[in-house]
Amino acid sequence: MSEVISEITRLTDKDCYHLVERHKKQHTYPLHRHGEMELNFVENCSGNRRIIGDSIEVIDCYDLVLMGGGLEHTWEQYECQSNDIREVTIHFSRDLFSDTFLSKTHIKPLHDLIQRADVGVAFGMKAIMHNYDRLNELVNMEPGFYSVMKFIELMYELSLTSDYRLLSTSAFAHTTMTTDSRRVQKVKDYIDANFKDDIRLQVLADLANMTPTAFSRFFKLRTAKSISEYIIDVRLGHAARMLADSTMAVVEICYRCGFNNISNFNRIFKRKKGLTPTEFRENYHKKHVIV
Question: Which of 167, 162, 188, 187 is nearest to 177 (CA)?
């Protein structure tokens, strides 16, 4: 089993959200998870290393991330030399944005953002600067009706931006990222169910009722990934999950996740994740405590 801290946040059933601002010299909190969603902003943090799900990245001076509940995450000091790291963390329940509320046409972008949060969303500098003053206003407001409206405004503004990246793979996060295209969704479902096996382009094209060439173009247009890239990401996500949750040998994980060559598996894993499979596993095998 994965040895990750289970954090009990300060959010209560009576709170719409819980916000805390900290100034500190270093990140010391280990890898952890909690049931609440989290919007986390970090400033003066160049050289920090952020881990969210199976995404591991060294970040610059500003970092803004939205995460769904249950996703493992932490910020490590790594190469950061700052003596005044500013962090603003907002915890809130998924229930704050009910399915009925999110189903309204006027706020569909917010619905889509909440769904993307299941795998973690990192916002780019343009989005951060656009919302920087709005975030600071929220930090300085007294808790109450208007602060809740400001928080919802902040979330909606973030939902409108195209300046973001998804972080963890859906396979690692145990979630399904749905798509508006039924043909693409059908193919994704097939890949998720058969990632351990040899997957043929012709079979996928037949599922979509298209020629292989037309399907390859269609899939990339809809997902921004080639079909081979998507299959590799799914396999790596499952491999990362096994590395985090078991003591199974790396070579066995390699073959169980559809890779037929351990050298190729190690090379692709290092290129995509920035760490070898063994190094990645070490980030997840921490002492298990409840805070």
Answer: 188
